[in-house]
Automatic annotation (TrEMBL):
Predominant location: membrane
Biological processes annotated in GO: ergosterol biosynthetic process
Source organism of the structure: Kazachstania africana (strain ATCC 22294 / BCRC 22015 / CBS 2517 / CECT 1963 / NBRC 1671 / NRRL Y-8276)
InterPro entries xref list: ERG24_DHCR-like, Sterol_reductase_CS
Parts of the chain that traverse the membrane: 21-39, 59-77, 97-114, 134-151, 221-237, 257-275, 287-306, 363-382
Pathways per UniProt: Steroid biosynthesis; zymosterol biosynthesis; zymosterol from lanosterol: step 2/6
Family indicated by similarity: Belongs to the ERG4/ERG24 family.
Catalytic activities: 4,4-dimethyl-5alpha-cholesta-8,24-dien-3beta-ol + NADP(+) = 4,4-dimethyl-5alpha-cholesta-8,14,24-trien-3beta-ol + NADPH + H(+)
UniProt membrane topology term: Multi-pass membrane protein
Protein name, as recorded: Delta(14)-sterol reductase
Length: 416
């Protein structure tokens, strides 16, 4: 296929175009540093101090070791190979799915270190004490990585993201120019970053907060810290273990990989999603059985909606639930409008948002700071719904209008 036909010029800008991309590139890292500065116990230094500190080689060695070991695990540990969706050049990429073996190995190493160090776990203490420094390292690492994939996208006749080929350097670098940047034929940078270094680091940061409490409180545990660790670990490992579900998500099928995703996956997820645990490690609260039950009930409700609706759509798409009512589209596929998918167009987002609220509630009403996550997540899901609506109405035309008549609510039933 001719290069121009394969990779048409992008004319529609998102996130406010090049100016919006520049503002977000500056704002998001500053926001991440500032919000974490609020929760850095004892010595709070100036931003210049942290920037100078980042020249310390041990931080770089630790972060790069973490990234490389996970990459090695991704390449070497056993798993199955699955096909991604058919791309617009007619090709299908193969993905190695080995989240289970990677997770089991990580948990085994943690258990072994616990035994060998008699619960001291110096690695977790290092992570806790260098939290902000490592956050800054990960920001710089994301910048390097997005420059690497941007330059790489000019090599050969590679498949670009439809939204990332505007010709404006800053915008394309930010939004992601290449659709599926890979090293060799099998190491998929985007899928790897979405699931491994950031998600598993988030799990370890939470654990480091619980561990910090444990070693500083005479080897005792705190219920709010245990709860946030359990709730988020469930979500993290659910994502890592069900990685094949990601192969059909917009991030993998449509979005390019640039600074937005690199920063989101490597910095924003681990260093801001762990905010509740960070907060509780400096300001612990005893929740007791009633508040714990309330939070657990909200999480279970959200998780049930999120999980069963996503599973239902995925099974339906595989042809496993033929009895459910659906609209036959002219494109040949069907739009499900039964069961969960008759309640709202993105009932899965609603479940996901309830989960986010349950996490914030583990800090109870001590501070509005930790509720940033639910507010941010609501904005993210709203923006995602708008993007998806645009995509689907272009893709399905009149069939999408029919679908919207059958399922009028977008996310929250009877509200929006
Ligand atoms: P959806 O799972 O809602 O998928 C949207 C796509 O599914 C559409 O583009 C369309 O694709 C297809 N589709 C939509 N409605 C129907 C229908 N009724 N019948 C059949 N196909 C339909 O959204 P996402 O991929 O954005 O999200 C998946 C999950 O990931 C969600 O639960 C979300 O909450 C979660 N998520 C979590 C994030 C986090 O940071 N924690 C970030 C982003 C998402 P097509 O027809 O082209 O196949």
């Amino acid at each position: 296929m001719a290069k121009k036909q394969l990779n048409p010029r992008t004319t529609n800008f998102e996130f406010g175009g090049p100016i919006g991309a520049t503002v977000l590139t500056v704002f998001l890292p500053i926001f991440t540093i500032l919000i974490n500065l609020q929760l850095t116990p004892s010595k709070i230094h100036s931003v210049t101090y942290y920037l100078n500190f980042c020249k310390s080689s041990h931080l770089w060695i630790s972060y790069c070791l973490w990234f490389s070991l996970l990459a090695a695990g991704d390449l070497l540990l056993p798993g199955k190979t699955l096909n991604g969706v058919k791309l617009r050049d007619g090709k299908t990429l193969k993905y190695k799915i080995n989240g289970i073996s990677n997770s089991v190995l990580l948990l085994l190493i943690l258990a072994l270190r616990w035994k060998l160090t008699d619960g001291e776990m110096p690695e977790l203490q290092y992570l806790y004490e260098n939290h902000l420094h490592l956050a800054i390292i990960s920001i710089i690492f994301s910048v390097y990585l997005s420059c690497f994939v941007y330059l790489k996208s000019f090599i050969n006749n590679t498949l670009l993201a439809l939204g990332g080929n505007s010709g404006n350097v800053i915008y394309d670098w930010f939004i992601g120019r290449e659709l599926n940047p890979r090293i060799g034929s099998s190491f998929d940078i985007k899928l790897f970053c979405e699931l491994r270094p950031g998600m598993l680091l988030w799990f370890l940061i939470n654990l480091s907060c619980l561990h910090h409490y444990y070693v500083t409180h005479n080897r005792e545990l705190n219920d709010s810290l245990v709860l946030i660790n359990l709730l988020q670990a469930l979500y993290i490992f659910d994502g890592v273990l069900n990685e094949e579900g990601l192969l059909t998500m917009i991030d993998i099928t449509t979005d390019g990989f640039g600074f937005m995703l690199a920063f989101g996956d490597l910095t924003f997820v681990p260093f801001t999603y762990a905010l509740q645990a960070r907060f509780l490690s400096v300001s612990p609260i005893h929740l007791g059985k009633y508040r714990t039950s309330l939070i657990l009930s909200l999480m279970s409700l959200g998780y049930w909606i999120f999980h069963s609706s996503n599973r239902e759509k995925s099974q339906f798409k595989k042809g496993k639930l033929p009895h459910l009512k659906a609209i036959q589209t002219k494109r040949g596929t069907k739009l499900l409008c039964d069961s969960w998918w008759s309640v709202s167009q993105h009932i899965n987002y609603f479940g996901d948002w309830l989960i986010s609220l349950s996490w914030c509630l583990t800090t109870w009403f001590q501070t509005p700071l930790t509720y940033y996550y639910s507010v941010y997540f609501a904005v993210l899901l709203f923006h995602r719904q708008k993007r998806d609506e645009k995509k689907c109405s272009e893709k399905y035309g009149n069939d999408w209008i029919k679908y919207q008549e059958r399922v009028p609510y977008k996310i929250i039933p009877y509200v929006y």
